[in-house]
Backbone:
């Protein structure tokens, strides 16, 4: 990742000396554009960042040494930043109209840590919802936008498992591949899989978990996904592994799932469902689960309701929304599903994203050849920003286990999850 | 518990032969009072119970063999049951105007299992709330009603620990005392207590957990309670154990807690708080917790919002309300507290209550001498009904661990909870 620490040769280090002089004369000595930059900084809560203008002028937020310098290419970019806020920060970075000298991830952490505080002690009246409801058709478009851009691209940095969800690191030193396998085993243990059981998986990615369950736990799996590219890849893997009789990959929406199962799993799909559809998802679970069944939902979440970052929602994950736990309960409570276990794996997702980002940067030339420089910068920002969001506690990762409300076929304790 | 299986000598077994003949002639051969009884049964969802009238007439709900016979003493009791519903069932049982031949606990299970279904797929519009807000003064009255009726009484059946909350059974065969100690250790491990740390406990009962923390984990504890009897008892224990310098018992409401702490615990108090006060409780937690602190809330709960059973709320626990998890989140989400871990220990509370009830029945003569027969019957119904409620999944037991949203001083995994 070192290669991205410094983007402009002129300013290889944040100029920690100069900005103090500038601040001493503020606002009298400031140019009109510098005043605009200060307005941008103030709107961000005055994080310890330094902006460097196209004319070399430098503006920093405060007396703290900046963790990074942000070089603005031209006047138009600055004006757009004033108008479009964080959406433009993302777009300008992707375009190369905003260059970052210093630690990109730390810079984003500072933006999160200095964000104007939410009102504590109260929740926003009328919880945030999707701006647009995720219909069957729109869900397919949304998923196509992100997951169908090329299996070869994802293979460059997701590791051998091709699992594109938070891993579980038994220790922080585990490798990405080890942690992805450990995550799958953690999920299978939470579900209490037994040989011969039937599993339905909603949103199966490239099929990694479904194939792991069949191979190592002797279950049959019906795995649903609306990404055509992922289903194609998953079917090829099932054939290569000789598991086509145990695992069926179905190119369809979770809302169309029918049939009964002993266990229901959904790892990394809920982010794309939208709160409007949570009760319907719960209905699918109760319709499919046998009376003594069990389900697991694994999803990015929040400590409190809040919309997705606008740039991520616009450019990376259209229609995505990470729910708070109270919002997630809209899946379970209408159906008297009993929540047995909730685990927050936030720091594991920060670690997972560090591994992904490092592998992505090692393959940056190949990515640039597959797409273009703009794509490389866009995905760098998404990955670095995601590391930052999980490190500072802006995002959470919840694994929720539930069972039908009347079932007593539930684990007595969680000790078996940790038995060696 | 066998002694309570049969309450009237005439009808030592449910008359599993007779009721079929009766049903065959229904409704033509039914007396007007029998029709009233059928109305009561229908209002309960036709559980497999048999009512026996004062004149010997028998009315059963369905073709199923009844699990118990309920003997109604007089016409007035039947009329009251039609008008007051389950509230009268409880009162009549306490008065001895309703006798139960058969398994009382199983009979209550059947009432729960046959209760008219809630509307699935939707939550009640406008969630249930307390009928009355638990002000400082009313909370004190409510707590006095239940917890100040005599430490000697509770000592008869709570076991050596005097812990009056759900225990944690490493295996179902553990004794009550073993399981109460295991519960305290489970809580201390979840909090990650380290020697020298400071703990605030909100709602400390007879002081068991606070004293355990100080003795076995080397922490100092400030423990709050509004029950005068419990605080007096807890202080005597602290003196006897030589722990008065480590543990301070404070006779005050959780809303008046001040001071800083590393860890915050509340085990079995939330049931008495009322959802109106959840955000205020969360405010107390964030006010007290140091930036890298951790908190644990242990409470009876529900799979979906629902008012307390009317007889329990009226006669046993005034002002009590067991929240759903979404409701519990009103404590945490307004303050950006991050939920790390939720564990549902429902079956452990069923087991705990079985132990309490058995010990209570063994001491029933002493209880009758302390109070009267009516009290014995009232508490039997409460204990048997609670066993049933947890066995059938009517009630849940949630342990929730949280930390300030920006803290990264959180456990990497939960493995240390299960390390031997």
Residues:
């Amino acid at each position: 990742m070192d290669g991205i620490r410094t983007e402009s040769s002129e300013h290889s280090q944040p100029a920690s000396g100069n900005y103090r002089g500038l601040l001493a004369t503020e606002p009298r000595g400031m140019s009109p554009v510098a005043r605009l930059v200060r307005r941008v900084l103030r709107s961000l809560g005055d994080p310890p960042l330094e902006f460097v203008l196209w004319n070399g002028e430098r503006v920093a937020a405060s007396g703290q040494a900046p963790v990074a310098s942000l070089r603005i290419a031209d006047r138009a970019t600055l004006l757009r930043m004033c108008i479009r806020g964080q959406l433009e920060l993302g777009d300008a970075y992707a375009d190369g109209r905003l260059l970052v000298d210093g630690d990109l991830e730390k810079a984003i952490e500072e933006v999160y840590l200095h964000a104007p505080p939410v009102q504590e002690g109260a929740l926003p009246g009328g919880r945030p919802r999707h701006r647009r409801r995720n219909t069957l058709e729109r869900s397919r478009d949304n998923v196509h936008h992100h997951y169908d851009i090329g299996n070869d691209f994802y293979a460059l940095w997701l590791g051998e498992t091709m699992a594109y969800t938070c891993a579980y690191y038994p220790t922080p030193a585990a490798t990405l591949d080890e942690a992805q396998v450990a995550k799958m085993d953690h999920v299978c243990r939470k579900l209490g899989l037994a040989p011969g059981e039937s599993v339905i998986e909603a949103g199966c990615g490239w099929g990694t978990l479904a194939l792991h369950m069949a191979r190592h736990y002797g279950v049959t799996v019906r795995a649903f996904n609306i990404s055509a590219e992922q289903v194609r890849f998953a079917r090829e893997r099932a054939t290569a592994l000789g598991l086509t009789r145990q695992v069926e990959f179905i190119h369809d929406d979770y809302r169309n799932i029918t049939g009964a199962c002993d266990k229901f799993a959904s790892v990394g799909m809920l982010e794309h469902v939208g709160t409007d559809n949570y009760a319907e998802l719960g209905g699918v679970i109760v319709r499919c689960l046998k009376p003594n069944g069990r389900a697991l939902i694994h999803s990015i979440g929040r400590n409190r309701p809040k919309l997705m970052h606008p740039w991520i929602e616009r450019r990376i994950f259209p229609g995505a929304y990470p729910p708070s736990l109270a919002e997630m309960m809209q899946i379970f409570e209408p159906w008297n599903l009993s929540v047995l276990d909730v685990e927050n794996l936030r720091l594991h997702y920060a670690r997972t994203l560090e591994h992904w980002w490092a592998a992505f940067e090692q393959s940056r030339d190949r990515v640039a050849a597959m797409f273009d420089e703009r794509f490389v910068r866009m995905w760098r920002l998404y990955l670095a920003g995601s590391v930052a969001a999980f490190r500072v506690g802006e995002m959470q990762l919840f694994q929720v286990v539930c069972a039908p409300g009347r079932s007593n076929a539930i684990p007595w304790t969680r000790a078996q999850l940790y038995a060696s």
Observations:
- The mean pLDDT of chain A is 91.
- The domain at 136-417 of chain A is CATH 3.40.50.150 (Rossmann fold).
